[in-house]
Every structure is written in structure tokens, then in C-alpha cells.
Amino acid sequence: MPNTLTRSPARPVLDRLFAAAEHEEGQPSPWPAGRSFTDATAQERADLLDSVLMPVSAPGGTLLYTLVRACRPQTVVEFGTSYGISTIHLAAAVADNGTGHVISTELSATKVAAARENLAEAGLAGSATVLAGDALETLAGVPGPIGFVLLDGWKELCLPVLRLLEPRLTPGALVVADDTTFESMAPYLAYVRDPAHGYTTVDFPVADGMEISCRAG
Ligand SMILES: C[S@@+](CC[C@H](N)C(=O)[O-])C[C@H]1O[C@@H](n2cnc3c(N)ncnc32)[C@H](O)[C@@H]1O
Fold it and tell me: What CATH number is given to the structural domain containing 106?
């Protein structure tokens, strides 16, 4: 059955963005030689990498769409918009559910503007809001209950952002974190995999791995 993801105007926008992401894989990184990534602030990293899409994979995007269709959350929160590839998948799902809204957040002003344009071009501007700024500030005021979360910003911030949102998660909320194979995801993974913290969780083998955790407690 066709859905928003497979139809114009969203499909051509996703095809264009995925093609740009594939092209960038063969290109030299714009990160300055000799500059330490870990020593740079989140804002410095966001600005230095504002031309790089770094999106979820195509199957990862389809997984996000599918999970949001199944859960039918009223509020979806995303940490790390970039150019809006994952946001378009999430927004397509709430649009097709006929209910719900996506709130995403991004540090790079260049990317905020581009993501808003891409969502509008995909016909999904009414289903998603992109907040400009640091997730630890912008997401502090998002009202609950939150039924679905995608964590895809700088990896060492995934756990602080989860802890920030945790009191507003609805029972049964799904939290998806991208790139579980990255070493910097270790503290996050240790947290959600400790049963004392109230999640049932599984590492889903798509691209660089997505941890899918259900707020069960
Ligand atoms: C891997 S990319 C996100 C890719 C996006 N989810 C997609 O699939 O297209 C990570 C993004 O998180 C943003 N980011 C990192 N730390 C952030 C923070 N503290 N607040 C908001 N955005 C942040 C970066 O600027 C970067 O664009």
C-alpha cells in the first residue's frame, strides 16, 4: 500500500538527500586536520560539520517510520535533525497515522534552515517542528507525555538527553538510539541495558546498529 514515504513530494526529497549523503561518503571530511573531535564543544562540532548530512540509513529510516506507525505516539522527540532525513521519516509516519507531531532539535543554524526547507518541500512542515539550539535546553520545555524518541545527536549526549526526557516518557514509550557500534555509545547502552533503569531493550542490526528500548517500568 503506498504511503507518504513512497509518494511524491516526500520520496523525491528523500532520494535527493540520500544521494547527497552517499556522495559525501567518498569526499574528504571537512573536519580540520589536527583538531581533536572530543575536545571541541558540541556547537563547534556542529558548525564545523554543518555541510555533512550523517543520516540514518535507508533501512533505519524505514524502521523508524514502521515503529511510529505501530506505536501511534502523540509526541515524537528527535535529538539531532541534521538535514532532516530521519525527521522526514518520523513526520511521514505521524502524518499517515493522522495524529501526533514531531519535535526535533539541531545545533547548527545552517542545518536548521535546510531541514525546515526539506520538510516543507516534502509536504510535511505541518507534522514536524525543528527547534534551533542545544537539545539539553530546547527539549527541557517539551510537554509530555512523549511516546517515541530518536537519539541521533553527538553520541556522548544521548544519555543526558534521555535522562532529561525520562520523566516525561509515557509507559511503553519507545526510545531508539542510532549507531550502537560507536564506542562513544557505551555509557548510553550500559544505562538502558541495566534492568534497574526500567527498559526492555534490544540492539537491532540495521546499518551501524539501532538500540530499541521500551520504557517498561
Ligand atoms: C548524525 S547527525 C543527525 C542525522 C539525522 N538524524 C538524520 O538522520 O538525517 C547528528 C546531528 O546532531 C546535531 N547535534 C549534536 N549535538 C547536538 C545538541 N546538543 N543539540 C542539538 N543538536 C545537536 C549535530 O549538529 C548533527 O547535525
Answer: 3.40.50.150
What does the alpha-carbon distance between residue 157 and residue 2 come to, in Å, rounded to a whole number? 36
Query: Would you say the CB of residue 169 lies under 6 angstroms from ligand 1?
Result: no
Verify whether ligand 1 is closer than 6 Å to residue 157 (CB atom): yes
- ipTM > 0.95? yes
Q: What is the CA angle 95-118-58, rounded to 5?
A: 70
Residue nearest to atom 8 of ligand 1 (CA): 55
Containing domain of residue 71, as a range? Answer: 52-215
Pairwise CA distance, residues 128 & 50, whole Å: 21
Ligand 1 center from residue 152 Cα (angstroms):
6
Please report whether residue 21 resides in a domain. Answer: no
Chain segment 69-100, per-residue pLDDT in tens: 999 999 999 999 999 999 999 999 999 999 99
